[in-house]
Amino acid sequence: MSELAKPVLPGDAGSDYERYLRTDELLALQKQPEEQAHRDELLFQTVHQASELWLKLAWSEVEEATRLLERRRLQPARRLLARATLCLEYVTGQLEMLEQLSPWEYQTIRKVLGHGSGFDSPGFRAIRRVTPPLGQALSGLLREQGLSVVELYVAGREHEDLYQLAELALAWDERITLWRMRHYLVVSRVIGDQVVGTQGTPVELLGGLIKQRFFPELWQARNRLTALAGEEG
User: Fold this and answer.
1) What phi and psi, each to the nearest 5 degrees, are found at residue 27?
2) Contact criterion met (CB below 8 Å) for 84 and 58
3) Which in 14, 80, 163, 228 has the greatest CB count within 10 A?
């Protein structure tokens, strides 16, 4: 190895790539083959661990976007919200990998999960924590402009930054719903929709969560806009 190629970052791994990303630790976080109850535990752990990384990035960006909105820095906030929404798209897409699990063979994996449940995901708990303040920051901006949500949409091109922020907030809310829906369908496909989960929670409860909205006023505004258009005939 040439002098230029030698790693300069602290650590024991053979390259700076491995040292910076701490790949030795990262790739040791999954069960070794001799520890696995079924070889598909690697698939199961990979999907969930990768999801936690994307969720961490997502909620971190939303949290910073909220701080930016509080300082009236709208355009940087928009950039971070778009990034966070894309993170959730990746998390949702990964769920397709779980459909590669055999419904029968997964029962072997399920026995070694203890009381582990998606309800305990630190990433999704953080999503639920940081999202309401985002809505509060957006509402504060609207109040400053003397606008209701409906008025914002009617005169949207006169308040482009606020309009785009409202649309990104709705996209964020929508992505959370799409993740919940996809998660419910994957769970139903693998273990069924009329069974009890690992924490004693009925799977059908997941279906009920699909109807929840973090920003109901943004969704309800659509109904009002359609009614207004009808009134104008």
Assistant:
1) -80, -5
2) yes
3) 80
Report the C-alpha gap between 1 and 4 in whole angstroms: 8
Rounded CA gap, 58 and 126, in Å? Answer: 9
The pLDDT assigned to 1 comes to 46
Q: Is the dihedral of CA 111, 114, 120, 123 positive or negative?
A: negative
Q: CA nearest 118: which of 179, 195, 172, 40?
A: 179
Q: Give the span between the Cα atoms of 74 and 163, in whole angstroms.
A: 11
Phi and psi torsions of 196, nearest 5°: -105, 135
| Signed CA dihedral, 226, 89, 186, 49: sign only | negative
Can you tell me the distance from the alpha carbon of 110 to that of 199, in angstroms, rounded to the nearest whole number?
12
CB 151 within 8 A of CB 157: no
Distance of CA 116 to the CA centre of its chain: 19
The closest of 121, 59, 58 to 90, measured between CA atoms, is 58
Dist CA 45 CA 131 (whole Å): 26
Q: Which positions of the chain have pLDDT values less than 70? A: 1-4, 197-201, 233
In this predicted model, what pLDDT tens digit does every residue of 151-187 receive, in sequence order? 999 998 899 999 999 999 999 999 999 999 999 899 8
